[in-house]
Amino acid sequence: MSNSSTPSSSASQRVAVVTGGARGIGLEVARWFLARDYRVALWDIDAETLGRTASELNDAAHVLAIHCDVSQPDQVDAATAKTEAIFGRIDALVNNAGVAVFKPIGQTSFEDWQTVLGTNLNGPFLCTQAVAPVMKRGGGGAVVNIASISGLRASTLRVAYGTSKAALIHLTKQQATELGTVGIRVNAVAPGPVETEMAKLVHSVAIRSDYHDVIPLNRYGTTEEIANVVGFLCSDAASYVNGQVVAADGGFDAAGVGLP
Ligand code: NAD
């Protein structure tokens, strides 16, 4: 599933990779880049939604859709090679693909644990490792890892999800420290709750009510509000920002009122 492009005519145009870009926050991040004349590669495990999204974006010169499971090293390597072969460079990588399982510890199976850690932690490790040499060849780049407020604060039901996001925040700092020396900045965004398919899946009525009460702005964020922060961190406006975690969470972390 891909389109063709003419790299020679657009070699100076910047390129962003957005994992999990077929829908939700990732799709909004892709739109942010497209509005600023980037070419965008969407890597996603869901071939059907990816195909539909690529058709809806209807911009074959700027959009490349690649079916990829970010937890699988061979698929990540193939997606990286294909993106570089067609677009010629990679300037920004947004490690957005994620899955959520909200269960008590006693009901979280080892398979749940592996699925969540595999996508949310192994994915950003593998994608950044594969893409960094391409960025380096182009003179540098920016990576943004999509973490979560669940990686900043512990709460019930999130043993796998929260642990994966907390580890991703530390991975961000490790990557920033090492890759900063070759001109690659790495930052994380920790969104508060956002109304997406993921939220529909795991946010019960009780969770929604808790979020409403503990978030000073008393509401969910929008995909646009998250994409704006991600885009800023990828842009030259953030050229001296490296290794940071920006919570886009309506003040949840600052208020310090815990979830149950
Ligand atoms: P979503 O479920 O709407 O979209 C996630 C996308 O990732 C989907 O297109 C899915 O197919 C893709 N994906 C899942 N596993 C993948 C894999 N192994 N390889 C490639 N693609 C894969 O979710 P969303 O709410 O848009 O979440 C995006 C990111 O934001 C996730 O990392 C999530 O943890 C994080 N986040 C979401 C919220 C929220 O409330 N929605 C809050 C904080 C953080």
Automatic annotation (TrEMBL):
Gene3D superfamilies: NAD(P)-binding Rossmann-like Domain. It comes from the Bacteria. InterPro entries: KR_dom (IPR057326), NAD(P)-bd_dom_sf (IPR036291), Sc_DH/Rdtase_CS (IPR020904), SDR_fam (IPR002347). Pfam families: adh_short_C2. Residues 14-194 form the Ketoreductase domain. Belongs to the short-chain dehydrogenases/reductases (SDR) family. PANTHER family: OXIDOREDUCTASE (PTHR42760:SF123), SHORT-CHAIN DEHYDROGENASES/REDUCTASES FAMILY MEMBER (PTHR42760). This is Oxidoreductase. It comes from Sphaerotilus microaerophilus. The lineage of its organism: Bacteria, Pseudomonadati, Pseudomonadota, Betaproteobacteria, Burkholderiales.
